[in-house]
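Example S7 (structure tokens).
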């Protein structure tokens, strides 16, 4: 019996993921033009970028939960429609505050477009194809992240900044049309009432989680806050709100995040490993440029070209990683990815000092496929073990754990680099001191990857196709 043709469905899910990823990266290249257009200082203009990722982070679990309540297809279509409208509002924004507000709404819609494709892939694809789907979604996410800045730069060459948001609106509209025509309606009816929906969403828990994640995102953003709130106060707020969130979830009749899910070894371990690898991934983006610029003496264009190696290799290796997951099993693929991550990080710590820029490119070429192998294997393992009623929520938790890792890496890894460097200003440090700090930072990251590998090796194997070759 021939397998059903799942390519149109996969294309629609990939298009939604690509659109959300473009929303993350496209705006970064627009900041100088926005500063001139609105006569605003850079710390204020940065909120055009910062409003998007924290909005995704705080909304992604609720987005997944809405998918469990109303059905992932319906919620994904609503998210694509909202993203289209928010992009139009951004393109027409008359002031910087209105643009930032539109970007925050874009981020909330983007949370749906990141969480629900994974849930839909788990629900609609036949056994043995989930790893391929996870690899494809990872590939399109990498392509969107890499393509966004260059796409925005090309638009600025012949139009103003508004053209970038018009293009995002067109991309979201095209993705909506694809989703409408290719994703079949769920056979189950979702007729939740507003009262039932409010109870199912766990409003107190949702508000506490939003407060926790917002405070943490602001504390780790590294930018000047309008209210000049110290990062220590924000971290204390995040810890306090997080503790209240745990207490609220224990008492909630329909908790947003059932703590039993986190106590499950399959889910809890997978989310913890996702956060650790997200922290490592971000270190290459936030520490690498300092070494390339101040130790190797590369200019901005050369630095950007070297750093583009990562997204380029990720785009090429995502699908093979998914293919291997379906054939070797999720657990084995994940372990191979983590072992290669350790080797790649050691290579990144040592090869650039020995070979210069070619060593850096070679190390990134070894490291990036390892990330793809881990993500495809881990996402497949966690989703394959998820109860059907919680797949949307767990898809959201996967996205949340990765974003928490990225935010942690954006703050912790540069801080570690500064400690090893001995001064916060790389311009005042000797190239050899910068190189030594770079090597020590990535050896520390290799230690974190090794601890994650040990955790993966001691994880109990799960039954089903996720951990067995198909």
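Recovered sequence:
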């Amino acid at each position: 019996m021939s397998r059903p043709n799942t390519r149109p469905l996969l294309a629609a899910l990939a298009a939604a993921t690509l659109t959300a990823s473009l929303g993350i990266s496209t705006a970064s290249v627009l900041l100088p033009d926005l500063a001139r257009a609105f006569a605003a200082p850079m710390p204020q203009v940065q909120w055009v970028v910062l409003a998007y990722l924290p909005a995704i982070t705080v909304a992604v679990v609720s987005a997944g939960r809405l998918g469990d309540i109303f059905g992932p297809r319906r919620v994904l279509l609503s998210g694509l429609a909202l993203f289209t409208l928010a992009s139009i509002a951004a393109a027409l924004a008359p002031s910087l505050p209105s643009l930032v507000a539109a970007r925050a709404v874009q981020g909330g819609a983007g949370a749906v477009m990141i969480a629900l494709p994974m849930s839909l892939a788990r629900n609609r694809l036949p056994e043995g194809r989930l790893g391929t789907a996870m690899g494809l979604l990872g590939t399109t996410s990498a392509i969107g992240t890499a393509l966004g800045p260059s796409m925005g730069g090309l638009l600025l060459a012949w139009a103003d900044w508004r053209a970038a948001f018009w293009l995002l609106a067109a991309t979201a509209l095209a993705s909506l049309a694809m989703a409408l025509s290719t994703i079949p309606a769920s056979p189950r009816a979702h007729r939740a009432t507003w009262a039932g929906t409010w109870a199912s969403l766990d409003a107190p828990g949702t508000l506490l989680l939003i407060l926790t994640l917002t405070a943490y995102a602001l504390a780790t953003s590294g930018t000047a806050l309008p209210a000049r709130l110290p990062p220590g106060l924000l971290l204390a707020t995040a810890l306090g709100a997080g503790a209240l969130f745990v207490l609220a979830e224990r008492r909630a009749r329909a908790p947003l995040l059932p703590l039993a899910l986190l106590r499950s070894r399959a889910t809890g371990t997978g989310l913890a490993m996702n956060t650790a690898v997200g922290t490592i991934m971000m270190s290459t983006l936030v520490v690498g440029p300092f070494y390339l610029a101040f130790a190797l003496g590369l200019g901005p264009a050369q630095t950007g070209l070297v750093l583009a190696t990562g997204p380029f290799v990720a785009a090429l290796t995502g699908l093979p990683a998914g293919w291997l997951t379906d054939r070797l099993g999720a657990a084995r693929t994940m372990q191979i990815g983590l072992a290669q991550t350790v080797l790649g990080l050691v290579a990144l710590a040592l090869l650039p000092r020995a070979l210069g820029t070619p060593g850096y490119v070679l190390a990134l070429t070894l490291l990036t496929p390892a990330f793809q192998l881990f993500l495809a294997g881990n996402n497949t393992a966690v989703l394959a073990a998820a109860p059907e009623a919680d797949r949307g929520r767990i898809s959201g938790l996967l996205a949340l754990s990765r974003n928490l890792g990225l935010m942690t890496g954006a703050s912790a890894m540069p801080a570690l680099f500064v400690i090893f460097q001995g001064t916060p200003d790389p311009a005042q440090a000797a190239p050899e001191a910068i190189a030594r700090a770079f090597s020590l930072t990535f050896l520390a990251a290799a230690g974190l990857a090794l601890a994650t590998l040990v955790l993966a090796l001691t994880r109990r194997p799960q039954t089903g196709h996720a951990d067995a070759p198909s």
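Notes on this example. The two ends are 16 Å apart (CA to CA).
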